Amino acid sequence: MTKLTRRILVTALALAAGSAMAQDIKPRLIRFGYGLAEASNQGRAVKLFAEQLAAASGGKMKLRAIGGAALGPDTQMQQALIGGAQEMMVGSTATLVGIVKEMALWDTPFLINNAKEADALLDGPIGEKVKAKLEEKGLVGLVYWENGFRNLTNNKRAVARLEDLDGIKLRVMQNNVFLDSFKSLGANAVPLPFSELFSALETKAVDGQENPYNTILSSKFYEVQKYLTVTNHVYSPWIVLVSKKYWDGLSKDERAALQKAAVAAREFERKDTRDEAAKALTDLKAKGMQINELSPAEAGRMRDRLTRVNASIAANVGMDLWNETQAELGRLRAR
Ligand code: TK8
């Protein structure tokens, strides 16, 4: 070893030791719950989150990933976080509306047109503002991940016209916007937690549901659903949450490690989800689903009906937030 390389090596080691020591990070075990299967875009991203968190904390912060709603459906986990009985979760923003009414903004049918708009809106000032509302309710939102554009499946008939939805018993998330949206389309909308959905479809307690392609695949809904209609009726985000009680007890460095891992996992998750969604229709066809697109005229009729709920969403989230969102989308679209 030359003198120079030795000096470089010694300096590098001292720096590494220094930064590890300077970091105020204690051994931590985080129970992180999620609703989908381990073999899903959600499960893959949680796994990456765990790896990134270990890397960012010198191996001190460990994440125990608990998937498949084993810790309960989204709403139950949210309460466990608020009470401090569980540290973290990822789930739909839609199931948070009972806690933070502004979250209903993301349930607005056809609000977001594409991935670029989604990322800009969610990661920008509007997304931050909505996320910040969680804190006074005992939750901390780290980042939004992609659930995706939702599409309709059912077991009764191919939905080609608005009238085809008449009387279809359709599971929706536990959220009034979704309930009203699908009632206004003529469906018999029934709110159910996601964890009960597969068996409700299997036993024909409900005829259909709506979720992104990724979830229709990873939750094997194709086994119990015949028809898929491409509706893209709303872009659904997921949000990574931390118990505020837990967060308040963390050091600055521990919080920074969590945030860093959450952002890295978000970048991975969005790409992974989009890659999977891009080829999902081929996969779902191969699994035997019958897929149809709507004619422009019928898509327009559905859109008109669905956007009838917009006025009440605007009133619920507040006109200021609604108008700011429209202005921000206008700016994004003019770029
Ligand atoms: C998973 C759910 C799911 C959502 C739903 O826990 O309930 O349909 O789309 O992703 O949050």
The structure class reads: alpha/beta
Mean pLDDT, nearest integer?
A: 94
Tell me the fraction of residues in β-strands, as a range.
Answer: 15-25%
What's the CATH topology name of the largest domain? D-Maltodextrin-Binding Protein, domain 2
- Radius of gyration (CA) equals 22 Å
Bound molecules: D-xylonic acid
Shape: globular
CATH class of the largest domain: Alpha Beta
DSSP, total strands: 11
What would you give as the CATH superfamily of the largest domain? Answer: Bacterial extracellular solute-binding protein, family 7
N- and C-termini, Cα separation: 55 Å
Low-confidence stretches: none
- The percent of residues in helical segments reads 40-55%
Main sheet: strand order: 2-1-3-10-4
Total number of domains: 2
The SSE order reads HEHEHEHHEEEHEHEHEEHHEHHH
Largest sheet: 5 strands, mixed
Q: Give the CATH architecture of the largest domain.
A: 3-Layer(aba) Sandwich
SS summary, helix count: 13
